[in-house]
Amino acid sequence: MTSEARSFIPFARPDITEAEVDAVARALRSGWVTTGPETKAFEQEFAAYLGGGLHAVAVNSATAGLHLALEAIGIGPGDEVIAPTLTFTATVEVARYLGADARLVDVDPVTLNIDPGAIEGAITSRSKAILPMHYGGLSCDMGAIFAIARRHGLQVVEDAAHALPATHQGALVGQLPSAAAVFSFYANKTMTAGEGGMVVTRDEALAARMKVMRLHGISRDAFDRFSSRTPAWYYEIVAPGFKYNLTDIAAALGRVQLQRLPAFVQRRRQMAARYLRELKGLPLILPADAPVGDTHAWHLFVLRLSDAARVTRDDVIQRLSDAGIGTSVHYVPLHRQPYWRDRYGLTPEQFPHAERAYQRMFSIPLFTAMSDEEQGRVITALRAILG
Ligand SMILES: *Cc1c(COP(=O)(O)O)cnc(C)c1O
């Protein structure tokens, strides 16, 4: 390995210690590697972390969780769901799995979260659900979103992939009165299980449906009701379900990460505060901090070049790369992606705020396994490029 390769600061790197390695080794040695006691414990501990009173359904990705949640609330052919254009395709591809359509709308220019006013403008007689995504870890304006949902009889399913843990008006995302919220444990999220996701809901019937659909449409009721008489080999298929269960190997990893989450949150806040402090005065639009009463999960640290910048976004990304620093862009808006653009005939003019943000945005490294010295290098490089 060359010294440059050794000192490269990636955009993200998971924070894995010997505790995670030991937990995974224990799961492997237990003789039970698929869904079992580790997964059940992970679900209970995750629900408890969010404050209890919730059903948690572990799945092998957040994408699977979003699919299960939309299926469980009854989304089907001909229905429409409303979602922001500035998100990952997973938020809305799941609607297409079910034969429903996505109405993509613009974002708020300050928070980059879905704009409640734009939601109102997109409602049709086919609208069934709103899918807010808490961009970067900052909660959407959920008060306004729930008010619109109530007024128009729509369900709300939160894409909470960035929002572990974010709070809105004192309540953790996951505890808000939506039908369901879906978290991701993908490698670069605020905690990881390698791959994995968790759906949380207060609605017992919804949780029961998602548990059945998570594993081939196998109903557990037959086991529970007749457990003394039903032979172990007997099961009933009540629907054409999916194969979305989480393994105990992944759950064992996720349980250790969940224990470390409070320390991860502290570290992310400290790092975000340092970026906000030390990048002041450069021709940048810094990410919006959470309003009083909310807390930011700081999954991402997204910068935008201001009008005063004398370089382009692509130049900044190239020069950071030359300095050994990885970046990313969140996201190429869905209205620019060929599938979504062509299916709905979308143009950039329909999404002025997302479009303007996209042209100027780049995400810099923010991960707990990054040292103070590495963060200092990112700050120094940005000052050299933009100062
Ligand atoms: C990561 C992510 C997902 C998908 O999560 P997976 O666990 O990889 O399926 C969905 N939506 C958003 C906004 C994400 O960032």
TrEMBL record:
Segments forming a coiled coil: none
User: What CDD domains does its record include?
Assistant: AHBA_syn
Gene Ontology MF annotations: transaminase activity
Tell me the keywords, alphabetical order.
Aminotransferase, Pyridoxal phosphate, Transferase
**UniProt signal peptide:** none
Family, similarity comment: Belongs to the DegT/DnrJ/EryC1 family.
Q: What is the protein name stated in its UniProt record?
A: DegT/DnrJ/EryC1/StrS family aminotransferase
